[in-house]
Amino acid sequence: MLKRSYGYALLMGIVAAMLLVLMLDDPEGRQRAFRAFQETQQAIAARLLFPQIRQSAQVVGMEAVDVGAERGLLVVRNEAGLWYAPPIEDVQQERAPQSLDQSVLESAALALTRLWAERWLEVSPDGLAQYGLQPPQYRFRFRARLADDPKELLEATLEIGNLNPENVAYYMYISTAAEENLHVYLIRRQTVDMLLSMLTASYSVTPSDESPMGDRVGTPVS
Amino acid sequence: MNAQNPTSASLREKLTAWAGVVGGIALVLAGLLYLLTGQLSAAVFVCVLVGVGGLSAWVWGNPDEFQAWLAGRQTRYGTASVLVTVLFVGLIAYAYVLVDRANITADLTRVQRYTLNAPTREAISQLRERGFRVQLVGFFTRNKLREQEAADLITRQYEAEGRGVIEVLYIDPDEEPDLAARYNYQPGFDGTFALVVLDEQGQPFVREMEEGGQPRYMTLYLGEPTERNITTGLKTVASAGAFKVYFTVGHGERSLTQVDDNGISRLRASLEGQGIAAEELPLAEVKRVPEDADLVLIVGAWQPLSEAEVQALDEYLQRGGRLGIFADPPILEAAIVGEAANRFLAEGTPFSDYLWDEFGVRLRDAFVIETQPDLVNGSEWMPIINTIAPHTIMSDVRDEPISMRFARPITLVDAPDERQGRYMREPLLFTSEASFGEANIEEFLTNSRVEYNPAEGDIPGPLLVGVTVRRQLEFQEEVQPRLVIIGDSDVLKNEYVKSVPGNVFLWTDVVDWLTGFSEAVSFAPVSDPTLLKLVVSAQERKTIAVVTMIVLPGLVLLSGLAVWWYRRRL
User: Fold this and answer.
1) DSSP state of B90
2) Domains contained in chain B, number
3) Residue B106 lies inside a defined structural domain of this protein
4) Is the Cβ pair A166, B97 closer than 8 Å?
5) Is residue A156 within 8 Å of residue A142, measured between CB atoms?
6) Which residue of A has its CA nearest to B173?
7) Are residues B185 and B246 in the same domain?
8) Which of B139, B140, B141, B174 to mutate to probe the A interface, most A CBs <10 Å?
9) B468 and B392 in one domain?
10) A34-56 pLDDT per residue, tens
11) Which of the residue ranges A9-13, B97-101, B481-485 would you say has the lowest mean pLDDT?
12) For residue range B6-38, what is the model confidence (pLDDT) as tens digits?
C-alpha cells in the first residue's frame, strides 16, 4: 500500500500538472474571446439614443431633407406650440400652422422620443457607403429642450441611410464631433418612417449645407 | 468575573453552534450563486457576509467545539473525503476542458443524429472526385445567434468530412449588407444557408456584375440548415452536367438566346443554375436524338415536323425518352398581321397523327376565348386557368395562377385502342367553364370576330390545355417514356417566367417530372422525432442549472441535516 503522504503528494502533483497545462493553453486567447463575447452582448443591447427628450413638446425645431431628391422641410414651433414653416430666402416660403399637417409633424417629434437603437455597429468613415450613408439618403436635424434643464438646447443631425437587408430597420448615425470610428445604429423602420413622414407634410425646399435652423429655433416657444 | 451562568453559557454555545451551521450553509450558497450567475452580485456578497459572520460567531462563542471539530476524527477523515471529492470533480472538469478545446466530439445518440448519413458522405466524396470546391454560406443576424450555434453543429461536420472541399462562411447581413447582397440575400433569408461553387482561386463564380461594379455570385439557395437541404444542394452541384435538356430548333421555335420578353433565355438560366446543361437540337440535321438527352423540349414551333423527325422522336421515346411540347394554336399575332400561320401540329400533319395514334392525344385547330368577367389583364385571349387537376407533377403550383396567352385546346382519346391503351393520359390544366374554343379561325382572320357557335365546331369549356402521358403501371416497365403537352408556349416566355410565380412552378415541376432531377439529388436523412434535442433555450438552461446546482444538492443537504438532527435526539 502506498503511504498516505505519498498519495497526497501524488494528488498535489496531478493538480499542479493540470494547472500548468491549463496555463500554457493560451489563457489570454480565452480572455480575448470572453471580452469579444461581452462586447457582442453589449452590441445587442438596445439603447435609447436621446433619453433627454421625454416628450414631443420638448422638440422646438425640425428639418428633414431628402438628399437625393433635393427637397425638404424645416418647421419650428410657435408660441402656441403649433408647427409652422418660417420663410427662408430662396429656399422655403412661409407656411402658417393651418397649412401644415400638424399630426404628421407631431408624430415626427414623438418619434425622437422613441429612437431606440436595435443594435449598433462600430464603423470607420470609409465603411459608411455600404450602409447608404455616404452620402446619406435622408438628413434629419432637430433642436429640443432638455428635460432636466429646459434652458439648455440639444441639437443633433441624424444621417439616415439604407434599409437593412431584412427591410425592417434603417441604418443611421448621429453626425456630431469628428470620430475615428462612428456608431451606426439600426433603428426600427416604423420609427424612422415617422420622422420621414414629415417630408410628406407638403412643402418643398432646396436643401442648403448651412442649415437655417440656427436662425429660427430662437422663435419663442411657450 | 469568569464565572458565568451555566444556563447562559449553554445558550450561547448552542446559538453560536447554530450560527456556525448557518454560516457554512451561507458560504456554500454563495459559491453556488456565484457559479450560477457568474458575477459577484449583492446576493453573493450578503451570503458571504452571513457565512463569515456565522463562522466567526462560532469560533468566538464556542472555541472549544471549533478546536475539537478541527482536530477531531470526523473532521480529519471528512477533510480527506472533501479533498478527494474536490480532486475527482477537478479531474472530470479538467478532462472536459481538454476535450472541449481539442474539439473532440462523440455522437452518443441512438440513431447517430449528429453523424453525417452515408448519402451525405457519398455526395461529399463525389464533389471531391469531380474537383469541386464549395462554400456553405450562412446568413445570421445577431437575432439568430442561437440558431447559428445549432447550425454550426451540422456545418462543422460537413467541413470536417469535406477536408478542404467544403468551406463554411457566416455573414451577418446587418453588418455586411454589401457582402450579403453579393450572395443574393433576400428578406426572409435570415437563419438560412446558400451554396456557392468556388473557382480554382477559391473565389465564388460570378453570375453578373452590377452597375456599381459589385459582383453577384452564382448561389444555390438551400433554406434551413438541415442535412436534407445541405446534402441536396451538394448533390445538385455534384450532378452538374449529368443532366442534359435539348431544345429543338429549325421550326420557328422560341429562342434560348433571345433575352427579350418573347424569348426563353430564362429557362436556360434556370436550368444551368441547377447544374442542368441546356443545348439546341437541330433535329432535321442530326437525324437522331443524342443518347445523353434526358429531355427534349419543343417550345413554340411553327412549322410542322417532317416524317424523319417524327421517327427520330419516336425512336427516342421508345427507348424511354422524355418529351415536352409547348404548342401554340394555329392563330398567332404573326398570322393576324399577314405572316405565315402556325402549322405546327396542325391536324393531318405527321407529328399530330403520331401523337394521336401512339398516345391518344391531339391538339385542336382552335384557340381558347375567355368570357369570364374577371379577365386576366382584360384580355379574352388569356384564359383563366382556374382548374388544375390533382397531379403529382404539380407540387407547388395549385395555389398560384398561371398566365397563358392564345392557348390551344387538347383532346384525349375516349376509347383507346391497344396501342394507345399502353399509355395513361392524365389531365393537368383546364380553362374556366365560361371559356370556349374558337374553331372558325378563317372567320376570325377575316372579320376579327369571335363568337361561340357550336354549329361551326366551337368547343364548350372547360377546355383541357395541359396533359401528361406515361406508361400504364410505369414501375413495371423497363423503358418509361413520358410526355407533357401544354397548349401554349407563352407560358414559358421570359415575360411570364420572370413575373408570374405560377408559371415558374409549372416550368420547374414539368422539368422535374420529366427528368426525375429532384429524385436524383434529394435524399431523406435518418430522423427520429423522439430524440432529445441537444440545443436548449436559455430558459431551459437556467432551469437545468437551478435543478442540478441548487435543488439536488439542497435536497442532499437537507436530508443530511435531517439525519444529523434525528441521531442527535436519540
Assistant:
1) H
2) 3
3) no
4) no
5) yes
6) A165
7) no
8) B174
9) yes
10) 666 666 655 555 578 888 888 99
11) B97-101
12) 677 778 888 888 888 888 888 878 877 776 676
